[in-house]
Amino acid sequence: MPPRNKAAKNNIQDGALPQQQDCYEGERLIHVLKSIRRGIESARALAGNSLPEKVWLKQQFAIGVNDVTRVLERMAAIIDEGSTAQSPFVRLQAILLAADCNPKWLTKHLPTLAKSRKVPLIIVKDDKKGSLRLGELVKLKTAVAIGVKARGSAINQIMEEILDGDEPNQRALLQVQ
């Protein structure tokens, strides 16, 4: 059996999240969440009111640790940069993960799983209110993890800007409409 990296083992046992993910807090977090909220409202307005809001939200997002894990597991693992195998299942554009999850072991598998599928992970830190903030986005009391499904909507365009490091702006919403 090959020797293991003791620091990495302790990191996983402690439930600490790896440092490679993007972490949002403070004013930056407020700005990003408002942008996503505007994207949700814009995409909902474009879709019309044919579906109940909760059903429509489930089409746009994987909500909760179990749902995010299920979608990630159905996505094909990306072994090398050259493979472009298309999966018949839904792909996630990004995952929003609350840093205040307790116990930490509930979400310790998500960073590794997301990395293997090349899905960016955004950590939401807000003085133990990250799960409340994520819950507000999807009309729930709390949400520890939310996966943004790649559907080509205003939400996806705003997430793309966030992932590229650009500040989401109103022009993105107008271009989609």
Automatic annotation (TrEMBL):
InterPro entries found in the cross-reference section: Ribosomal_eL30-like_sf, Ribosomal_eL8/eL30/eS12/Gad45
Domain Ribosomal protein eL8/eL30/eS12/Gadd45: 93-149
Coiled coil: none
Taxonomic source organism: Gossypium raimondii (Peruvian cotton)
Protein's recorded name: Ribosomal protein eL8/eL30/eS12/Gadd45 domain-containing protein
